[in-house]
Amino acid sequence: MRFSTPVFTMHRAGTAALIATLVLAAGCSSMSEREQGTAKGAGAGAVAGAILGSVTGGHAGRGAVIGGAVGAVAGNLWSKHMEDKREALARASQGTGVEVARTADNRLKLNVPSDVSFDTGRADIKPQMRPVLDEIGRNLDPNVRVTIVGHTDSTGSDAINEPLSRERAEAVRDYLSTRGLASSRVSVAGRGSHEPVASNDTESGRAANRRVEIFLSEQG
Q1: Which residue in 53, 116, 117, 47 sits closest to 75, CA to CA?
Q2: What is the pLDDT of residues 193-206, one digit of tens each?
Q3: 216 forms bridges with which residues in the sheet?
């Protein structure tokens, strides 16, 4: 009976484990949270890549390198700080109708509907929105940037809707500035009625389209 293949596979897996241990050791306390996430992701990717390469007849070391690179990217995209902020914002917005989600490109997105954000035709922030905005500015990591996008429904002309949507985004930015968030970390845009999320043929659809979207993203 021959045992060469299983032994060889175990040897490769052991090599992968050693590589992963070395990579994970890099995630020391002297690193930033984002760097630690990169190191941990690389370690996990190295193990998976090496084992996959071994099982499929490839080279364990090469698989570990490839897996480590992929894992490093994945680990770098969503830090514990961002997850903590997502949970805090979900708590702060509970029952308000504000939607808090992680996007496919690893940004934290808040969709703030019109009944929470602004009255029709106005850019004055409603009181219901302030606790959510307060939480955005609280303990925000210096690497995080904020993008605010205002939207309207199709009622009225572009000459009215486009400046109104931008004024709403600017109102959110100005409020965050009063809470200590530097304006240099915030970008704003007004899209008017050009990016609807529902039909403008119904009142409920128009209400859904009157919104402000706030994105938080970590910079490298």
Answers
A1: 47
A2: 999 999 999 999 99
A3: 108, 146
Closest CA to 188 of 214, 153, 149: 149
Single pTM value for the model: 0.67
Q: What is the number of other CB atoms lying within 10 angstroms of the CB of residue 180?
A: 9
Q: 15 with 61: CB under 8 angstroms?
A: yes
3-state secondary structure of 198: coil
CB-CB contact of 181 with 138 (8 Å): no
Domain boundary among 77, 105, 139: 77
In Å, how far are 4, 72, 148, 166 from 54, measured between CA atoms?
13, 20, 47, 55
Range of the domain at 67: 4-77
Residues 73 and 91 in one domain: no
Tell me how far CA of residue 58 lies from CA of 9, 162, 191, in angstroms.
10, 56, 50
Kindly tell me if the per-residue pLDDT of 108 is higher than 90: yes
E strands, 114-210, in order? 144-151, 186-190
CATH number of the domain at 123, please.
3.30.1330.60
Rounded to 5°, the CA angle 200-117-180 comes to: 140
For 91-113, give the DSSP string.
HHTTTTT-EEEE-TTS-EEEEEE
| Residue that is last in its domain, among 48, 77, 106 | 77
